[in-house]
Amino acid sequence: MSLAHAQRISVVVPSFNQARWLGDTLASLVAQRDSDLEIIVMDGGSTDGSDNVIAQFSKHLAHVEQGPDEGQSDALVRGFRHATGGILAWLNSDDMHLPWTLATWREAFATDASIALVHGDRIVIDEHARVIDYRSVRWMPHWLLARMPWFAQETFAFRREAYDAVGGIDREMRFAMDYDLFVRLLSHGRTRYIPRLLGAFRWHRASKSATIQGSIGAADMRAVRARYGLPEWPRFHPGRVAASAAVRAGSAAYRVLPHDAARRPTRCGFDVRDLFRLASSSEARARSLGEMW
Q1: How does pLDDT run across 114-134, given as a tens digit for each residue?
Q2: What is the extent of the structural domain holding 219?
Q3: Does residue 233 form part of some domain?
């Protein structure tokens, strides 16, 4: 990897028939005005007008593939092969970044060469991009996150060297490819939790989290735990109860903080895209890069 590309961020956007939200996803990347961002779109042959959305953003996209694939994991594997950045991430085509996400990642990796993975907290939005909740893992140690994957995938980024060293995405995973990769990266190098909101996760009835988490998703997560010797805790195991309590407490604590839409949003009910409108001026953008806690 050339030094010129070490701080480049390559983001793969896997998508299939999500034209309704794909524009929000791509706009959340482009609006950050990052001069060394590489966006790679892997569309699995959508028939819902996604091609028109992709065309609208074509000048901002480093690579686009449109055609049948073998699922999300396959799209990610192939997408990362085209990535030239030293920092990698993916953003599902119904989720969003926030105005300060890329800058926060780059700063974290630049200040500590030993870091393999960074992650943060998330905003939960509905199908219309309205904020409905916040999720914080501030009080969950990484050993507990490895057992109970409450981390927010859209908030994490990792070094290219670490991704290659641990073997990349497992194509066999249909749901928990992020969990599987997260566990391997945890054991490879330092992981840093950043106490900031770094992504917006969209909850809607057609999402994988709503449709297959209890079936295929549960089976995938059991497979990950078995593969790496992690315990399969029953519902009321103290560790599982503690993990749930930690996330709920962190999220509840966050929501009682004073609301500052440009610096630290804590309220529900507003359109998350308003954060980008507030950050459109250089003054608002500078303020939004401040600590979120």
Answers
A1: 999 999 999 999 999 999 999
A2: 3-288
A3: yes
